[in-house]
Give the backbone structure.
Amino acid sequence: MSELILSCHLGINHQLGYDPPSEPFVFQRVTQAGCPTPAATLSYHIDKVTEIYEGDYTTVYRASLLGQESGAPRDIVLKTDVNARYPRSSMFTQEALRYEKDLRHMQGTYIPNCYGLFQATIYNKLISVLLLEDCGESINFRDRSLSDSDNIQIWKLFTELHVSGFAHRDVDGRNVVKDRDGKFVLVDLEHSRPHKCEVRLRVLIGDFAPRESDFGCEELYDLAIELDFWLPRFLTIYGYQVAVSAFKNGEAKNIVDMLPSDMFGTEEDREEAMREVERVIKCVQEIQAEYADVPDEQRYLRPSDIPKSRFSSEPQAPV
């Protein structure tokens, strides 16, 4: 069985109230049912450790991974529950299972390569260490520097995950990283769950947002909103929110009648409101007409439209 030798103690002794040990900690590789078994028994060493995140449940570091099978170090991200308030071994086991079994076909393309889950009982506490490829820096969905092309790449990460039968369940820019070459990768799979995606509508940037119930998938709907794909479902008229659907085929009089009658002091005020609503109706219908003629093949794919053969790339061999 492969082992991980951890000479940089990550504050383990400090967190658990013990003096610094004289020897490195040794973690054993965890191999779960259905996951590939490493071809050889190897010892791995961690070097150049820098903390990048500390939460209540997980601490994340950047580091270099050194192993006997290769002379060149690998840039990795190390996740551990050493500082967790509560035991987290089950969550680390689940996340490793996603990387090494359920979504192994996505490794190295849509999700990072996984170099293994290692565990050790230290000072009567089970500690987990998950090693993943370092794929870059987290993004912000609202970052104005992200182009439409970038957002489409991000959209595809999640749709590829859905067609593989899983939902991420934590749609946030911090869980998407971007490397120096502009490639995006989806990370942090600890909350992912089996999912049968029922998206019924294709997506087109600039169109009006459909109702969530018509769209069919809450997670992808939320992602489209976060990526600012759609125009809003509601428009503000004289300080009141009116659904876009009312403007698509509605009449100005009916929309004005939705507004409080006491907001119009004179008949001229009401006629001015009618003219404003008619202007908005015209704009909405022009946008409708613009997108009505876009063929389906130019709209972004739903998960059900993605053939399984998309997963043709082979992940890196397990280490």
